[in-house]
Design brief:
With 634 residues, the chain is an alpha+beta fold. 51% of the residues lie in helices and 16% in strands. Helix 5 crosses helix 7, helix 9 crosses helix 18 and helix 11 crosses helix 15.
Length: 634
């Protein structure tokens, strides 16, 4: 058969070559990122071949806004919400990849059973016999309450997947007798003690001078080893650099006001909604609205009718009052109908995507030019600044053509500067470049010599070119003198603090070390901050009553000591409590293992972002940076 295939291929070289070209072009088109970013099917990220779509991110952002939205301004929250949504969805894809590698499967039947059990918690969804209501009735309730069963189903599937992964990992955790005994004591043995802490003050240690510090530097140079660092050449454009180019005059403001005059007209209205989908329901709802309108025109109270009849849940308790709004806040058929009314008038039935409305206009007001002049000036100025700055930086980028930015920047009235060397770590700093913490990770993603796209960070727009990468090395003493001095001061201060505490314990007991706090007898497991430290946990378990623990350094750099005042032994383990404790310990460790595996998978994937998301289709992680910005409904 193989020989036959070769013969066919040899005898049809031209047609086969054409076929291969078509296949290759199709593959390239599939792997290349799309130029469009405004459709629900736009790929925001790929995680080991699993796609995160724009619609997924928008849905999850809406969910997060509902959860966090009341804590602050939606616009201020947007960067956090957007970042969290992308992180959550990518983590879920990582978990799906991990489940595939471990052979873990969640079936539709399992998810369906969980969903039904979830819905049965709510009496409103049950019929008199205690069963779930019909599909049509449930759909109506979901529409009225805004509940999204598909979203809940997805969340339950994710929860089941995580649970199964943890259960599988837990079976691989061996719990021996010694471990079990310690965990049992931590949970059930009650220990009472007095404790004292002593802070370290390194500022009181004098600078010993260059000779002493250089000796420390030479003796322990590897302590000051720095990771690979980069230097970037950057061009920044702020408002001052553009001069009057971003300013606006009175004529432009008035023209903008006239062009957007309708945006400054506000209406106050009430409405009654009859929900409807499809032509048949729309006709029925229109007939109901028309009959009601006749009664309202004759004098029936609109607010009471809204309370009793409106199918908009927000109408309950406020008589359908919408407050003040402009046309942009409502769908066009609704705002057009409101704009056509005079105060006191009631509209004819108005069809929108939500159903059929009756609208009663209660007021109309229009902002004057002077009321919005400052707002317009700021908006137009911002727009001009953004446009001009982006244009200038794009021109610099094109003129530089992948090379040095200095000459191109100078030709357009700007200046290129070099950053100080920085590592790819949080809090990276460079004089004259306060935006560096936001740029550092991107600066390490680009290759040496590559130029970034123009971007706005804070009050400036900028581009940068990766100028140079410095290899991992111990810098010259002068560059790290401050770090050497800080290390010396901390070490000396710790020695002095330890000697002071030891002397205090010998002469005056615990109270001489520092202020004492009493800890009533309680299980150590509830003192998470303390027992997270292995040495402190061991000391609290092993020190006899009436004795003082060894002096130990806490995780936040303080010296700690305690005197045990009481100890109530843990009760003996029964068969059931033993089994339950083993399962608890295994589950806790399995969660740690799962987190570690996911982190490793994430790190490995991000090392292969690949050409045009190539690796993202197969075995890496690709993020479509241009598609991350997601519009969110009000």
């Amino acid at each position: 058969m193989l020989r036959s295939f070769r013969q066919v291929f040899k005898s049809n070289r031209t047609p086969m070559a054409a076929v291969m070209i078509v296949v290759l072009l199709g593959l390239v088109a599939y792997l290349a990122p799309s130029g469009r970013v405004d459709t629900p099917d736009t790929v925001v990220a790929r995680v080991y071949g699993r796609e995160v779509l724009l619609r997924d991110m928008a849905e999850h952002m809406q969910e997060l806004y509902q959860r966090f939205g009341k804590q602050g301004n939606p616009e201020a929250l947007k960067p956090f919400i957007q970042s969290q949504a992308l992180r959550d969805l990518m983590n879920q894809k990582l978990m799906e990849e991990l489940a595939d590698r471990h052979g873990v499967v969640v079936t539709d039947e399992e998810v369906g059973a969980r969903l039904r059990a979830f819905l049965r918690q709510y009496p409103v969804l049950l019929d008199p016999q205690g069963n779930l209501k019909s599909t049509a009735e449930l759909k109506q309730i979901f529409q009225e309450t805004g509940f999204n069963p598909a979203l809940q189903e997805r969340n339950l599937r994710n929860e089941l997947l995580r649970t199964k992964l943890i259960q599988q990992a837990a079976l691989q955790v061996p719990v021996d007798e010694a471990w079990l005994a310690v965990e049992h004591r931590l949970r059930n043995e009650k220990v009472g003690f007095q404790q004292a802490t002593l802070a370290v003050d390194a500022t009181m240690v004098a600078d010993p001078g260059d000779a002493a510090l250089e000796a420390i530097y030479k003796a322990g140079s590897q302590r000051f080893l720095q990771p690979p660092r980069r230097i970037i050449q950057f061009v920044a454009v702020d408002r001052a650099a553009l001069g009057k180019a971003a300013e606006t005059d009175e004529a432009a403001l008035k023209a903008a006001f006239e062009a957007r005059k309708s945006d400054y007209i506000e209406f106050k209205a009430r409405h009654i909604l009859f929900k409807a989908e499809g032509d048949a329901q729309m006709q029925e709802a229109t007939a109901k609205a028309q009959l009601l309108r006749e009664r309202l025109v004759k004098g029936q109270d609109f607010g009471k009718a809204a309370e009793e009849l409106s199918e908009d849940p927000s109408a309950k308790g406020n008589g359908g009052d919408l407050g003040w709004f402009n046309a942009a806040r409502m769908v066009k058929p609704f705002s057009d109908a409101a704009a056509a009314l005079k105060p006191g008038e009631i509209s004819q039935p108005v069809r929108t995507q939500y159903g059929v409305h009756l609208i009663k206009l209660e007021g109309r007001r229009e902002k004057r030019f002077d009321d919005v002049k400052a707002e317009l000036a700021q908006e137009i100025s911002d727009g001009r600044f953004n446009t001009r700055a982006q244009e200038r930086l794009e021109q610099i980028r094109k003129r530089a053509n992948g090379g040095d930015l200095a000459a191109a920047a100078k030709s357009l009235g700007s200046q290129a500067q070099l950053s100080q060397p920085f590592a790819n770590e949080p809090g990276a700093q460079s004089e004259g470049l306060p935006e560096l913490p936001q740029l550092a990770s991107e600066a390490f993603r680009l290759k040496v010599g590559e130029v970034s796209k123009p971007q706005r960070i804070g009050d400036r727009h900028l581009i940068f070119r990766v100028q140079e990468e410095l290899p991992e090395a111990v810098p010259p003493f002068k560059e790290v003198r401050a770090k050497v001095l800080a290390a010396y001061r901390l070490e000396e201060a710790r020695k002095q603090t330890l000697a002071k505490a030891q002397q205090a314990l010998q002469s005056g007991g615990l109270q001489a070390v520092g202020p004492i706090s009493d800890q009533a007898a309680a299980p150590l497991n509830g003192m998470r901050d303390l027992v997270a430290h292995p040495g402190i946990r061991k000391a609290l378990l092993e020190t006899p009553v009436g004795q003082t623990t060894p002096l130990l350094w806490t995780q936040d750099g303080k010296l700690w000591v305690a005197r045990i005042t009481s100890r109530d032994p843990a009760p003996a383990l029964t068969f059931e409590s033993r089994r339950g404790l083993i399962q608890e310990v295994q589950t806790t460790e399995a969660q740690k293992l799962l987190s570690a595996e996911l982190q490793t998978l994430d790190q490995q994937g991000r090392q292969r972002p690949g050409f045009s998301s190539f690796w993202g289709h197969f075995s890496g992680i690709y993020v479509n940076a241009s598609a991350v910005s997601v519009p969110v409904e009000e």
